[in-house]
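dumping this here so i dont lose it again. seq + smiles for S-adenosylmethionine
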Amino acid sequence: MQTNRIILGDCCRVMPTLPPACADFILTDPPYLVNYKDREGRSIKNDIEADWLMPAFREAYRVLKPDSLCVSFYGWTKTDLFYAAWKAAGFRIVGHITFPKRYASASRLMRYSHENAYLLAKGSPRPPEHPIGDVIDWNYSGNRHHPTEKPLSVLTPLIESFCPRGGLVLDPFAGSASTLVAARSVGRQYLGIELDPTYHGAAVRRLNGYSAGQAAYLDRERATSASVCYMERAA
Ligand SMILES: C[S@@+](CC[C@H](N)C(=O)[O-])C[C@H]1O[C@@H](n2cnc3c(N)ncnc32)[C@H](O)[C@@H]1O
């Protein structure tokens, strides 16, 4: 199986082509089922209907190694649907992680200023030598590559804690490849799947070392026939 790449496609169709028990850790951020749209009008595919939820987590369970872990972000307004899908797939709920933000994502009846994820087990994973806390401070990612881009700083401790060095991290809802960039930065292999060609393109550019901003800059430079000598790598 070819790793260290992001596949363009529907994870419910792509995961069945992967061998069983190939991933050491799954870290994923599926659509929250909230019909999200940001100020620039960017939206997320499959963010209304939940028909993909059960098949996706059934396959995630199959491709995860025995006695291994999955961390899944989720939308708290649809906790019941996510919970049902995880349990139906065979996962045990073994932890809940809260990510407090220093800003509110929305303000209605309350100022909504945290994200959530569940820690899900297949079998009985061995506890890490130095367990991390279940409250992890959130840093704003800037959402440059994707409207709901997760900050690398919250992903890397999860990968270091739950995936062995050199192991394979799978993200079936990879967006702009934040999980994959984080995995690479801490010496893990990675495999991502992304349905939307726009975000897949952003992910490929990011993995190839260019931020979306730099790619747009290069596109503009090319369009004006300026000589392009700017090949600075993304930080
Ligand atoms: C919440 S976003 C992930 C953002 C990502 N964590 C990042 O930092 O860029 C969820 C992503 O899942 C993708 N998606 C939705 N349904 C999918 C499916 N069936 N297979 C693969 N990707 C899917 C969406 O296009 C979206 O980019």
